Amino acid sequence: MLKTRFFVSCAALAAAVACAMAARAIAQDGTSAQEKERALIEILKSDAPPQDKAIPCKQLAVYGSKEAVPALAPLLADAQLSSWARIALEAIPDPAADEALRQALGKLQGRLLVGVINSLGVRRDAGSVEALVPRLKDADPEVASAAAVALGRIGGKAACAALEQALSGAPPAVRGAVAEGCILCAEKLLAAGQAAEAVRLYDVVRKADAPEPRNLEAIRGAILARQAAGVPILVECLQSPDKDLFAIALSTARELGGPEVANALVQELGKMQPAPEQAPKLLVIKKAQYGAGQQWADVTDKLAAAVSNNSLSIEASNNLAGDPAQGQVKELRVTYSVGGEEKSVAVPEGHMLQLGQGVPEANPRQVALIYALGDLGQPAARAAVLEAAKTGSWGTRVAAIHVLGRIGEAQAVPVLLEAAQGAGELGSAAVESLSDLKGNAVDAAIVGGLEKAEGPARAVLIQVVGYRGIGSAVPVLLKDVNSQDDQIRLAALNALGMTVGLDNLGTIIERLVKPKDAAEAEAASTALFLACTRMPDRNATADKLLAALPGAPAEAKVSILEVLGAMSGERALAGVGAAARSGDDALADAASRVLGGWMSADAGPVLLELATSGNAKYRTRALRGYIRIARQLDVPLADRTAMCREALKAAQRADEKKLVLEVLARYPSAEGLSLAVAQLSSGDVKAEAAQAAVKIAEKILPGNAAAVADAMKAVIAAGPGGDAANRAKALLDQAQK
């Protein structure tokens, strides 16, 4: 017994050694593919346990050739390794792999046989068709099913004939796989240009008693193989009460495309579309405020967004705007219109507001057809979708309006404009589509409509002008920023931010400096940011902003400085730097904050100056901004290290010194190592300096042995404690070797 155990142990040890040697050979970079293959084969031939042979099998999928087949073939009968061996055999580009799999067909059963059949299908081995056809009648349903799918993948006349013959008589457990095989054969026929044969085979499956998924696949194939001649089958499915047939028809319509398909969908949509009726009376939220006394919050947008199905149900509560009038009983005041008739209502806090009248729910098939027409993008769809956008249920209109943004033209602008005045999803969809419509004719139609529109319609068109960036509308916008209608005035100001040029930038600046109210000041600030950050001449833009800075009120000065920071550039930097050095404390505060977040390295010298000789209140902020540039921005290593040296000179607090040490460790250099070592004498950062020095030394040791040795001696002498001292000693030993 002991001898037996000894010999078994020796054999296992030998196998382990052989595996280890082979693994090393495979891992060596200079090893050729043939050498790696031989090493892998040796592992498979060894007495190594199955778990040690699995990965070599997988690697032979990369390195294997016909030389590996004799080692892989016996493993097909191994329950633990069969699937791993098949991975390699499926990939080896040599007929020997096909032959090995074919030979296994007559020797295996159950799941091992199923796996081999699957592999023959993956390899598309025409030579195995004769052996696979009898397996269609195998007593094991899994084997028969695998054979059917494999024959489908292989294709060819003999495979197609066998599958077609087996379809009608196949037992229920196998019939789905046989149908799948027939469909795979039909796909190969279609790809080979044999459309008539593909159509015939698809028709056989779709008329057979096959499982529904296979039947649906056959219907799809039968339509696509017929091309335009398949439209009648498509229509038949569209008219079916079966939801799955309707769904496969729409997805196939998208695949097939073309004017014939679009016309068929339009006709079906027309059958579902009710007779044209008067458009539902739209609910439009014009103005909404929540509060009491002199404290009111504008909640217009919140109520407009809450409109659904052309109706609104919402509670007058602090959820609308916090608590704008604490300690008082508040109310919700709303000005709205229904069908153009303006009304007002006031609802006490805690009560529900109910407005508008819901419209009928959309027919889901109608909505699906509209979206499919949008995906087809055919001209034939435009008129039908436009008509759907005018009438019908709320959901139908929302769908059609969405689609018009993709396929509509200038003729869609009036319909979309009317819908855009509504609230909720209908209005949002219309504004989005007006913004998405393509073409100069659409721009011209929008500008033309703007010249005639009034009230909410004008405000919507102005909003769209901004989204589309229509520069030709700027003269109209410049007039509308003086409108007495708050909604129009603010919309024009926002739109100017996206359209105005440098020559008219002063209009936005003026509104920021001398706003009518807080809402206009906020709109002007946003518009100024949008306008200035897209101007091509940053210096000229900065000059205009800086010219307005001295006479601007405090809040406007802050906005101007923030815009200058977002723009960056030479003049902007100089202007913000001057503001940071000014005697105006509020201005210096804002400017130093802007400089602290400057996104280019040219702000470094300005920040360093402020950190050393600027306003004492903001020196720490300036220094942190200077360190941030060294840490985050793209700066050459020599310049970065120089910045760290200056920052350490200016630093008065341990926190800033630690930040600099972090930068030095992140971007290691010999000079940075020297700077870190110099901080060992600073008691407040001694531990951090030691850690930084060790990290730098570990990265730069090759080529800097002397410098590292000196630095590590200093670290050890400083006695930082912890692992820094141990690492320093190890580095010192390495540096002195």
Write the SSE topology:
Blueprint: H1 2-27, H2 33-45, H3 50-63, H4 69-72, H5 82-91, H6 95-105, H7 110-122, H8 129-132, H9 141-154, H10 157-169, H11 172-191, H12 195-207, H13 212-226, H14 231-238, H15 243-256, H16 259-272, E1 283-292, E2 295-298, H17 300-306, E3 311-315, E4 331-338, E5 341-348, E6 352-356, H18 364-376, H19 380-390, H20 394-407, H21 413-420, H22 424-436, H23 440-452, H24 455-468, H25 474-480, H26 486-499, H27 505-513, H28 518-532, H29 538-548, H30 554-567, H31 570-580, H32 585-596, H33 604-613, H34 619-632, H35 637-650, H36 654-666, H37 670-678, H38 686-700, H39 705-718, H40 722-736
Helix pairs in contact: 1-2, 2-3, 3-5, 5-7, 6-7, 7-9, 9-11, 10-11, 11-12, 11-13, 12-13, 13-15, 14-15, 14-16, 15-18, 16-18, 18-20, 19-20, 20-22, 21-22, 22-24, 23-24, 24-26, 25-26, 26-28, 27-28, 27-29, 28-30, 29-31, 30-31, 30-32, 31-32, 32-34, 33-34, 33-35, 34-35, 34-36, 35-36, 36-38, 37-38, ...
DSSP summary: helix tally: 40
- Taking all Cα atoms into account, the compactness measure Rg is 39 Å
Q: CATH first level of the domain at 2-224: which class?
A: Mainly Alpha
Q: Can you summarize the main beta sheet?
A: 4 strands, antiparallel
Assembly classification: single chain
Structural classification: mainly alpha
Summed over residues and divided by their number, the pLDDT gives a mean of: 91
Q: Label the CATH architecture of the domain at 2-224.
A: Alpha Horseshoe
The CATH fourth-level homologous superfamily of the domain at 2-224: Leucine-rich Repeat Variant
What order do the strands of the largest sheet run in, or round the barrel if closed? 2-1-4-5
